Amino acid sequence: YRADSIQESEIASDLKSGKAFWFGNNKKNNPCLIVKTRRHFPKETSTEQMIRFGVYTIEKGVDKLKESGTSHICVIWDREGFSQKKNFDSSMVTVMKQLVGILQDFYAERLEQVYILKPNWFFKMVFGMIKPFLSDKTKSKIKLINKHEELLEFFDPENLLPEYGGTATFEYRWPPDAAPIRDG
């Protein structure tokens, strides 16, 4: 996917959506990627573009590792507000399989933990399809979180958005001078 050649202009719609962005660090000082599935609309982007956005985002995380002086990242996968009709189509299984493969093959040792918020029956069905492709080591890095307050075990309040029980004032914007992206 030529990670070094991905230009922001190629993935601008994904960046503007706020569906995935870096914010804060967990208690181990690992940079955190926040993924908000309710902001993803598969009909608005191609499978290739979704994968390129994923690779671009991961590469930005590698840059954050250098800034934080750590070697691992964590992910908050926020499933709240996810709608099967609006936020999922069959191409998502393909994208997930490819991104999981890329993560395992090229970034496996970078992932410390994935915190999956609100894993409902649909998630469990899709996860069941993906799980066979995960190594045991990767499976051990997945934590299912039913209540936002549980995140405070892993994050200091200032490194969590208020919607997750934190006190941070950060609001995602892209480009940086744009209005903040809010769920409404």
Task: Indicate the overall shape.
Answer: globular
Give the N-terminus to C-terminus distance in angstroms: 34 Å
Helix content: 25-40%
How many helical stretches?
Answer: 6
Structural class: alpha/beta
The strands making up the biggest β-sheet line up spatially as: 1-2-3-4-5
Counted beta strands? 5
Largest sheet, strands/sense/barrel: 5 strands, mixed
**How are helices and strands ordered from N to C?**
HEEHEHHEHHE
List the helices and strands and how they pair.
Blueprint: H1 12-17, E1 20-25, E2 31-36, H2 47-68, E3 73-78, H3 84-87, H4 91-106, E4 111-117, H5 121-130, H6 136-139, E5 142-145
Parallel strand pairs: 2-3, 3-4, 4-5
Antiparallel strand pairs: 1-2
Helix pairs in contact: 2-4
Report on the architecture of this protein.
The protein has helices at 12-17, 47-68, 84-87, 91-106, 121-130, 136-139; strands spanning 20-25, 31-36, 73-78, 111-117, 142-145. It has a five-stranded mixed beta sheet with strand order 1-2-3-4-5. The mean pLDDT is 88. Helix 2 links the parallel strand 2 (31-36) and strand 3. Helices cover 34% and strands 16% of the residues. Helix 2 packs parallel to helix 4. The protein is α/β, with parallel strands linked by helices. The termini are far apart.
Key structural traits:
184 residues, alpha/beta, five-stranded mixed β-sheet, 6 helices, 5 strands, 34% helix, 16% strand, globular
Short note summarizing the structure:
This protein has 184 residues and is of the alpha/beta class. It has helices spanning 12-17, 47-68, 84-87, 91-106, 121-130, 136-139, and strands spanning 20-25, 31-36, 73-78, 111-117, 142-145.
